[in-house]
Amino acid sequence: MSNIILIQHCQSEHHINNMSGGWTDTPLTDLGRKQAKLLGDKLKEKIVDHNEYALYSSDLLRAAQTAEIIGNQINLRVNKNKGLREINTGIATGKTKDWARENRIPMKNSRLDLDHQEFKDGETWRQFYSRVCSCMLSISEKEKGKNLLIVTHGGTLGYITAWWMKFEPEMIVDAYFSSSVGGITVLSQNSFQQNVINKFNDTSHLSLLN
Asked: For the domain bounded by 4-209, which CATH number is listed?
């Protein structure tokens, strides 16, 4: 299998205006656009031949706009894929974080319940992981032989990483890969055909904004 570069989308309006995440569709902030530009600069150094890569993105604005900025810098067309969205939070979509906190259905214990549905009409964690795994298998099959550059969301990125490490659904109860805005994660295979996390959540390029 080819290499995969994962990008968590840059700062979005929902990070600063108290809107919930999930499928709430918010654009990048001005800072987020600057972060995406720095991501593009970083990737131009890493990607020698853009023809060896296929660029995919969640179709939600915050990821798609990050991908468009990067794609313009490295001369790649963005393929938007709904399967790369964050977890579906159902009736919490478009609501504030305060509303979401007050209206989520609490879990019965402190451990992650894969089949718990936090919000009516939303996904369970098992459904979310299954959707991400199916999406990645489909993209990998379609783009066989090409490296993948994928711009997505924090939860989705964590589950793509778990898929890469061949986690069974029950394994995500006790383990999670937590990334941050504008972070770069690099996945590859070694000579033993083991799936490897070469780099996780590299945000060194964002230091130029400080």
From this structure: 3.40.50.1240
Region for residue 45 given its phi and psi (left: phi exceeds 0; alpha: psi -120 to 50; beta: otherwise): alpha
Mean pLDDT (the chain, rounded): 96
Pairwise CA distance, residues 105 & 89, whole Å: 11
Which residues are known catalytic residues? 9, 86
CB 177 within 8 A of CB 34: no
Tens of pLDDT, residue by residue over 86-118, are: 999 999 999 999 999 999 999 998 899 999 999
Residue 77 is labelled as binding a ligand = no
Q: Could you give the CA distance from residue 182 to residue 95 in angstroms, rounded to a whole number?
A: 24
Q: Domain residue spans in the chain?
A: 4-209
Q: Report the alpha-carbon distance of residue 121 to residue 109 in Å, rounded.
A: 22
Query: Could you write out the DSSP letters of every residue in 24-71?
Result: ----B-HHHHHHHHHHHHHHHHH-S-GGGEEEEE-SSHHHHHHHHHHH
pTM exceeding the 0.85 threshold for the entire prediction: yes
164's enclosing H/E stretch is helix 154-164
Per-residue pLDDT reduced to its tens digit, 112-138: 999 999 999 999 999 999 999 999 999
Does residue 146 have a known ligand-binding role?
no
Q: How far apart are CA 139 and CA 210, in angstroms?
A: 36
